[in-house]
Structures are given as structure tokens and as C-alpha cells.
Amino acid sequence: MKSPFAISTPVFTRPMLLMFVVLGTFPLWGTSVGLYNYLGVEIIIWIIYALGFNLLLGYTGLPSFGHGAYFGIGAYAYSLCQLNVFESVWAGILLGAFAGGVAAGLAACFLSHRRGIYFALMTIAFGQVFWFIAIKWHTLTGGEDGLLNVYRGTLSLGPVDVSLKSNEALFYFAFAVLVVITLLLWRIVHSPYGKALQAIRMSEMRAGFVGYNVWLMKWSVFTLSGVIAGLAGSIFAIAQESAYPDVMSLHASGFIVMMTLIGGGFVSFWGPVIGAIIFFVARDFLGSLTETWLLWYGLMFMAVMLFKPEGIAGVWQDFMKKQKAKSAATPTSQTPKNSVAGE
Amino acid sequence: MAFFEAKHLQKRFGDQVVLEDITLSFEAGQLSGIMGPNGAGKSTCFNVLTGQYKPDGGTVHFDGQDITGLPPRKISGMGIARSFQIMTLFDEFSAIDNIMIALRNTVTRAFNPLYDLPGDTTTMDRAADVLAKVGLKGRELEQAINLPYGERRALEIGVALASEPRLLFLDEPTQGLGVDGTARLADLILELKETYSIVIIEHDMKFLFRLADKISVIHWGQVITEGSPEDLRANEWVQASQLGEVA
Q1: Fewer CB within 10 Å of terminal CB in chain A, N or C?
Q2: Which residues of B touch A339 (CB under 8 A)?
Q3: Domain that residue B102 falls in
Q4: Which among B163, B190, B223 is the end of a domain?
């Protein structure tokens, strides 16, 4: 007999397909509502970055305030590969992801036995160290100017080569990467690993006593999110045709935290997606009205944290719960609140 | 050698000696109790035995193997589980997920991303069985934080049971329970006693005297006496202290 409590994890879900359809068709409708393809590229890059970041923040409850470092290192690795080694998009992004992972893995060796405020402070320290290296190591990174004239390159797909020169082509490439990353992360968070990460968030001590190697789990999740940040960073380098230290700074690292929180990364897998979209739409929309758009964005962030710390996804979940309670004759108090999986 | 044996354990925090010289042994198939007044070092002793603290001296052996100073996850892997005095549940998980995440089967597959944990019938059935064992049948989908206090206490034990321990440590399981709750918990522990070797630290002497086969009394960081409940009732020191009165 099938256990009444076993619910298999679907490979695709409705919110996932919705995201794929809406974002995947962006070049078809984006321009007609006044948006542009490059914005789509940026949004996709930051969604990838934010999804990986949320594995750390939302799932494991580990606040990293220096994550821009791994994003930036990915961008540098990609650019260095194109400029000095050989021009291959695939090699570049693999190297970018690898470099992000190595740097994050290195930092995680010193972070993984920490928690709470000490963990947070250490992530800032490491972020600053990497950022400082990027600024000062002129011969490798080009200092504050960064590495310029990185070719957009050609993507070889077996028999065909696709030029990434146009933003549209780059968009579809980034979107394909996003699809892969989404499916991968969705699988991971529903595996024992993902569940154990959440268990660590709720009680690190108990997770250890139950038998989990908490140190290794924290190390590996930090490294994994560094890999994804590095991957996103290398696509960013393609988009920007350059790599520069600005994205590694403390305030750039703060953006990813804000996106993840506004969207509702603590209560939903899709929180970071919503957050990244809101950030860029706000930047363009508010930015067209006022130069001080960040002030307004910051105030919005504060309002969300004060009144609905679960973010936009939290508002949506409350709304759906109310709808469900209305439609059901008997209130369904038995419905479990799914901690973070957010279907 | 006994099933579980600690010899000459010492533990200091700074210049404060909490465990002076503790020698304890627990037999398989028995329920052993540890009692003692507040500040006697019971909890520290428990934390040293289960790996939360490393002892400054002495040895701990479990089933013939030296486990002195091993981290909790290793000790857990060898078949020792514990519950906590201050409830330590995975609050946002449902009751059944609290058990599911603690099952040995899940822990050993922690790094297998292809395993669909929530969809595994065998795992979920096993988790439901453990919940039923601690009297939480029908509460599977309730979020842990929303369970009433007594049921949270039961779930606390359930999480420990999930790892299929050979030796179960319970840290003040009656903490905060009323008379009814304590009576129900005693029944549950009597049932568990059939299958598990158990060690309990307890404040509630009546509770412990009813359940235990053997009780060790800790005071001033030492084991001052041990024996069956009957022995202890006859013991001069226990009679002289308040501990005897309640018993």
C-alpha cells in the first residue's frame, strides 16, 4: 500500500513552468511593453545567482554578506580565459563556475564551524579580501578598470555555432542555463541533502546529534552556492564584455541579499526569482523617474522586512491559504505549512 | 565490560570543576537513571557521555569501543541517540518530517541528490511507525511548532528513536509536563523499555523510581551512590536528603 504521507517530488511544477514560459518568451513581448532584451539578460543572470544564494540563506539559514566576491571571481575567470587562454564560451563558464567554487570553498573552510553573527561577519571579511585583491592586483585583474574587451564569443553547439553578439542570442543562452540550474536546484532541495540543510537552519545542534556532518554540509552548500555565483558571474562577463571589481563590493553583495529577502527566499524556492525581477524592474522604472531610486528601493525593502518578513512569496502564500480556507467547507487546519519548499 | 561504561570522567569549565570523577556503567536491556540535586553536574555529565562536550579526563566505552571525545554525529552513528531537556525540534517541519529527517536511512543518504526523499513510501511509512510508537498517530502533518507541549515532548523522543538507537539517552523528559503528561510519558517509556536500553536524567524522583532498574546519584561532580530503587530508598544519604522524601 502506498504510504499516505509519501508525496513524490515532480520534476516540473506549475510555478516552474510559469517562470519558464514567462521568461523564456521575454524577447517576444518584452519590447512591446517598453522593456529591452539586455534587461532580460540581466534578470536571468541575477535569478541564477539568487537561486544559488538562497540555498545558503533561505534553506540553510546562513547569511552571506560577501557573496558578490564569488560572482565577481566567476566574471574574472571567464574574462581571463577568453583573453589569455582560449576563446571558448563553454570553457569560460566552466572555469568561472569552478573559480567561484574554489574561492567559496576556501572561505568556507574558515566559515563552516561558525554560525549566526560570526558567520555573517566572516563572510563580509572574506568578501572584502577578495574585492581588495581584485582592485590591487593590477597585472591580473586590471585594477579598478577591470578587464575590458572580453569578446562575446561564439557558442559552439556541436554542428552549429551561435554568435552571442546579439542580446537576444545571449538571452536564450542564459535562459537555457537558468533552466538547467532550476531543475538541478529543485532536485537538490527535495533530496535528503536539501532537507538536511533546512534541518540545520532550524537546529544545527540537533542535526549533528541525529548524525549529520554539519560542518561538511555547511562547507558544501557554501561551495555549491559559490559555484552557481561564479557561473552567473561568467555570463555577466559575457553580457558586460568585461569584468570589474564593482560587483564584488559590499554594497553589490547587499543587493543579492535584498533580492532574496524581498522575494521571500525563506518561505519559497521561487522567492529569489520574484526578488530579482522586482529589483531590476524597480531599477528601470524608478530609475527613470528619479536618480535616487535606490533610496526608494531601500525604503521598500525596509517596509517588507517590517510588515512582511516572509516577502512577496509570503504574501502570496497567505493569500492562497485564505482562498483555500474560503473554498473548503471545513477549514483545512491539517494542511502542513511547507517550510521552504513552497510549491 | 558493561554495555556502556564511563570511567573517571573529568570536566572543567575554566577553573570551575564540574565533573570531579564520574564512573558509571549502564547495562543493555535496562533502564538506568541518573539523579542528583540542581547543579550536581547531571547535565554536564550527560553532555559528555553523548559527545557534546569533550571530557578533560577519563574514558567512555560503548559496546566495547572507545568513544571518548568523538563528535555527536559519530556517536549517533554508532547507535546512541539522545533527546534534549530544552526542546530541540525542527520546528518548521511537520511531525512526520521531523522523524523522516532523523531516520538512519535518510542520514546515510545525505549526499545523494537523486534520492527523492519525500516520495519514498518505505521511508515515510517507517517515519509514520515511529510517530505511532510515541503516540502521535494522526498528528503526522501538524507542524512541530503547533503541537501542544506534551506532544512536542513525545516528538522529542520520537526524533531520538528515529535513528534506531541501541542506547537511548533522555534528558529530563518530564520537564514542564503536568501530572497527566508525566503519567502518560511514564507509560510510553515503560513500553519503550521493552525494546531499548535507556538512560534517563530526571528531576522527578517518583517518575524515576517507578521506571528505573538502576539509579546513580550524582552530587558535587561525583557518583555518590548507586543501586536499585529499593537499595536507594534504604540508603542513608538519600533518606537524609530531600531526594528520599519524594521517592
Answers
A1: N
A2: 92-93, 97
A3: 91-163
A4: B163
* CA closest to B88 among chain A residues: A206
Range of the domain at A133: 14-327
Per the domain annotation, does A29 fall within a domain?
yes
Q: Which of B163, B184, B201 lies at the terminal end of a domain, its last residue?
A: B163
Q: Measured between beta carbons, which residues in chain B are less than 8 angstroms from residue A220? A: 111
DSSP A59-126: IT----S-THHHHHHHHHHHHHIIIII---HHHHHHHHHHHHHHHHHHHHHHHTT--HHHHHHHHHHH
Interface test with A, best of B82, B116, B142, B167 (most A CBs within 10 A): B116
Looking at the structure of chain B, the number of domains it has is 2
- Tell me whether residue A280 is in a domain: yes
Contact call for B109 and A192, based on CB within 8 A: yes
| B118 found inside a domain | yes
Q: Among all residues of chain B, which has the CA nearest to that of A5?
A: B124
Residue B31 belongs to some domain of the structure: yes
The answer to whether residue B112 sits within a structural domain is yes
In a domain, A6, yes or no: no
- Helical (H) or strand (E) element with A287: helix A271-289
B235 and B173 inside one domain:
yes
Domain count, chain A: 1
Cβ–Cβ of B73/A335 closer than 8 Å? no
CA distance A308 to chain B (A): 18
Task: CATH number of the domain at A287, please.
Answer: 1.10.3470
Residues 6+ apart with CB under 8 A from B100: A195, B106, B117, B118, B123, B124, B127, B162
Q: Decide if B178 contacts B191 (C-beta within 8 A).
A: no
ipTM of the complex model:
0.89
Q: What is the pLDDT along chain A (343 residues), one digit of tens a residue?
A: 457 788 888 888 999 999 999 999 999 998 888 889 999 999 999 999 999 999 999 999 999 999 999 999 999 999 999 898 888 899 999 999 999 999 999 999 999 999 889 999 999 999 999 999 999 999 999 888 889 988 888 888 888 888 888 999 999 999 999 999 999 999 999 999 999 999 999 999 999 999 999 999 999 999 999 999 999 999 999 999 999 999 999 999 999 999 999 999 899 999 999 999 999 999 988 888 988 988 999 999 999 999 998 999 999 999 998 988 888 755 444 444 444 444 4
Query: Do B245 and B212 belong together in one domain?
Result: yes
**How many CB pairs below 8 A link A and B?**
133
pTM value is 0.91
A196, A210, A336 member nearest B94 (Cβ)? A336
C-alpha cell at B228: 536499585
Interface contact flag, B81 A208, Cβ < 8 Å: no
In a domain? residue B243:
yes
**Strand A154-157 with B167-171, pairing:** unpaired
From the list A193, A198, A217, the residue facing B113 with the nearest CB is A193
Helix axes A116-136, A68-80, angle to 10 degrees: 30
Whether A9 is covered by a domain: the verdict is no
B57-76 residues touching A, CB cutoff 8 A: 71-73, 76
